[in-house]
Design brief:
The chain has 11 helices and 7 strands. The protein is α/β, with parallel strands linked by helices. Helix 4 links the parallel strand 3 and strand 4. It is globular.
């Protein structure tokens, strides 16, 4: 039986989280997840592994003035520290900038797309689990970092974007669907007017990002992607919340029964959002120059950690699709 990890203080946990040289597997015993909030896993200190004299302060710091997402933010900083260290070491890997949601930044428990790509590229990752597309448009980090890296003499070879999924799940999903009336027709459960409005806003958000990037970086390749067919209540039964809060619970609130009907409804919505992203590709009639769509449908192949996030191997194959596209672009 392996020895239990030693107890540490909250300050030591924060230091470990921020150190990119410490494997994330070594951090898991010191972390747990709050299951009472939001649509993203929120890291909290595991109070069984934090020393008693520091327990109260760690609890207060994580839940009070530093906010519920404090440890998530520290976890994000690991990648940014790794990126900066590579720049200082004159690492030869191509530089990418990534902005997105939990497919690009899933804290600690999964090796997400950026984790898998980081072996081949040096990636400044601005992503955060739970981020909405509107937040990515408004917060300005993309432009600040693109311009800052350029001004420091670094060439960003491509911008990777992952967004829109959080905008249409949870309570938002209920607004896109009609209550169950006994029909087994998945399409009949789609509120076409609400879907058109919500998905139109997603397309407008992406186009707003493209316009602003193109104002300063007219030739920068931009890679966007569609999600694979998410699985309401997958058999893996992840213990990381919100469990079924993204898909299963909101559909159940509309009396849509668990099982094939829920999956068929999500299948329609996933195709709809992928159609939008495919239409933004430079090769489409409605596309944007320099925008490249990565189609991830049927990539995960049942390897789901929870309703919306692949297991490590599934994320690895999604990352492979990005590598293929980047290779085609000579990156």
């Amino acid at each position: 039986m392996a020895d239990e990890p030693e107890k540490i203080t909250f300050a030591e946990l924060v230091e470990k989280l921020g150190d990119p040289d410490i494997p994330e597997s070594d951090l898991k015993p010191y972390l747990t997840v709050d299951n009472t909030i939001g649509m993203a896993p929120v890291l909290m200190p595991n109070m069984d592994r934090i020393t008693l004299e520091d327990a109260q302060s760690s609890h207060m710091r994580a839940r009070a003035n530093l906010g519920m997402g404090f440890l998530n933010a520290v976890c994000r900083s690991r990648r940014q520290n790794q990126f900066e260290n590579r720049l200082e070491d004159r690492d030869s890997r191509p530089i990418l900038l990534a902005e997105g949601d939990s497919w690009f930044q899933y804290p600690v428990w999964l090796d997400d797309v950026i984790d898998h790509l980081s072996d081949h590229y040096n990636i400044m990752c601005l992503s955060a689990a739970g981020d909405l597309l509107e937040e990515m448009v408004e917060d300005g980090e993309i432009w600040d970092y693109l311009e800052g890296l350029r001004d420091d003499g670094h060439t960003v070879r491509a911008l990777l974007l992952s967004g829109g999924g959080n905008d249409i799940v949870g309570d938002s999903l209920k607004e896109l669907l009609n209550p169950h009336d006994g029909s087994e027709d998945a399409a009949a459960h789609i509120n076409q007017a609400m879907v058109a409005e919500a998905f139109g806003a997603i397309e407008a958000g992406y186009r707003a990002i493209f316009r602003r990037v193109r104002d300063t970086f007219p030739d920068l390749p931009i890679l966007i992607h569609g999600y694979d067919y998410a699985q309401p209540l997958p058999e893996q039964g992840s213990n990381i919340p919100p469990l079924d809060g993204w898909l299963g619970e909101p559909m159940r609130d509309l009396n849509i029964p668990d099982g094939p009907l829920q999956a068929a409804i999500i299948h329609i919505l996933i195709n709809r959002i992928n159609d939008i992203f495919a239409g933004l590709d430079q090769d489409a009639d409605t596309g944007v120059a320099g925008v490249h769509y990565v189609n991830n449908r049927n990539t995960v192949q049942g390897r789901w950690h929870d309703e919306m996030h692949p297991l490590d191997e599934g994320f690895g194959d999604v990352a492979g699709k990005f590598r293929q596209k980047l290779s085609q672009l000579g990156i």
